[in-house]
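re: that complex we talked abt at group meeting.

here r the seqs, copy pasted straight from the sheet so there may be weird spacing, ignore it
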Amino acid sequence: MHHLSLYFHFVKLRIRSQMEYRLSFIFDVCAQASISVIDFFMIALLFNRFKELAGWSLWEVGFLYGMIGICFAVAEMVGRGFDVFQRNIVRGDFDTVLIRPLGTFFQVFAHEFLLRRLGRIVQALVVFLIANSQLTVAWSLTKVGYLFISLVGGTCFFVGLFVIGATSCFWTVQSIEIINIFTNGGVFMGSYPFSIYRWWFRHFFTFIVPLACVNYFPSLFLLEKIGASGVSAIGVHLAPFAGFLFLGITVLFWRWGVLHYQSTGF
Amino acid sequence: MIEVDNLSKIFKIYHHRKGFFGSFANLFSRKHRIVQAVDKVSFTVKRGEIVGYLGPNGAGKSTTIKMLTGILVPTSGSVTVNGYIPHRQRKENAKHIGVVFGQRSHLWFDLPVQESFELLQRIYRIPETQYRYNVEMFDELLSLGDFFQTPVRQLSLGQRMRADIAAALLHNPDILFLDEPTIGLDVVAKARIRQFIQKINAERQVTIVLTTHDLDDVEKLCKRVILIDNARLCFDGELARLRRLLSTERLLTVDYAEVYPDISIPSAHVTYQEGARVQYRFSPEEISTADLIGAILQKFKIIDISVQEPDIEELIKTVYEDNSLILPCGETT
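got the structure back, here u go
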């Protein structure tokens, strides 16, 4: 409880300081939303020509796109502390984290909150809702619950990627930009049905970096496409939890990184 | 309060490569050199003491403080602070210590001081009455009110330091670690912070470990000093004892009633003469201060006389430069 109330206090402070420059804030939110609209427009153009992709219609792809977009934007909003961790470690601010009577992961997590990502969240949500209205998804309580878990799982997945990027700073000081291949690239890859990719690629993004587990597989279930995909139904049902597991593993990696920092310093 | 036994810290300094491929390669890089930052240092600090932890740049002061605060894990040896092992019980230890690094603020730089303090109140779960009492007291002593609503990034260095020290004491820690608390401050600001430290130590029995380059800090605050050089402990004892051990020479300044043509005195050297004012340098081992004054009084008429001990800055420089002066710790005179 202490951590939770502390977290919301931090969030409150962050939001207030970001609202200080209200005009710039609003402008930023709108700019982000419109940029991502163009983003989806590109996909729509593609479909204008091809009509369907590996058995997926435009609106089904919009469903995928919306889901992954929401997850990524929420992850950027809440996981900002890890995203910008490099800056803090270069300044030596991590010592301050270590002198406080709180866990390091919690402190870095709670330290930042990027409200501006609201623009992207709204945009992805709009695409998702429009796609949904064009499709005939038979929503049930199970499906809504499953969607919710998938979205949280997907957010955990992206936060986990930020955590990996941040943790690598303990060794390299600079963050390894390679992680962007997975974050920004993940959104891009996740916007298309996974069946279009080669087998090694699909396996890598299922079992090592479980991007497909939080987006593609859940969509198979929600859009009732499991049968056509040839993926096992049990696997699909459990898939969203891979996001939680992934985050859990990255937390362990983080702890290891902190131990490394404490034995080497800078 | 603090027990340090045979504490050592060895760093492997990795070679950092730059750029995209460089930073990736750093993950696998094994290139490094070994630096011994702290070498078998032992000391204990009792409750309510103010100890000056001194040494030249790179001697290992900050590394020691970081091990005492749980930021770094020792390579070997043991540390206990308040009965806690800082690196194993980091969070417990953190509740009972306050830390101030002069070079860097621990406050949130975009928040006003007051909000930073309120955050700390939540983080350390400080009861409202204690929080109010402390803020009021620190405000009285450090005039925090002048800048309580100002974001930390807009504070002057002196204000920031005052805010940082107050922040480190909000949760009533038993021990306060101060790493260069007066660095870059003007004389007035320094004096103010020293007074505050003295008062906190006297009234609350807060144990204080102070690292500094400013020897005025040491003279004003510390009875006891620990000197380290090249990662090793080279002196641990009272400041006065250090002075006695090292001060082989003193200065005697005399204002004579008139200008004498020959002012030489056996066993003392004239270091300068300006009209009727003469300064002698002498060694107390050769001639005691009393005998020297006696000899002067016998020959001349004087108006005023004063004896000066050499600056500790000079003293410490002697220790650093002359390794034969290095004393095993715990040695008594």
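couple things i noticed - Chain A touches chain B through 32 residues (CB under 8 Å). DSSP finds 15 helices and two strands in chain A.
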